Sequence to fold (61 residues):
Amino acid sequence: MTNIHFRCPCCHGSQYRTSMFDVSERNPLGAKCIFCKSPMMTFDHIAASQHAQRVPFEARK
Fold:
């Protein structure tokens, strides 16, 4: 079994709960932060979004 590490994009917490009622296209595993109720992101999504912010706009064409 693969371990998935989540991080909240809003409060940066790492504690979450899952629910089948929270499953959506944006949140396929139904994980929500227990503190601010935001959908959790996996570390690979966070790294990709941080990289996209650092790359100059001209290089993203």
User: Anything to note?
Assistant: The chain has a mean pLDDT of 78. Helices lie at 43-54.
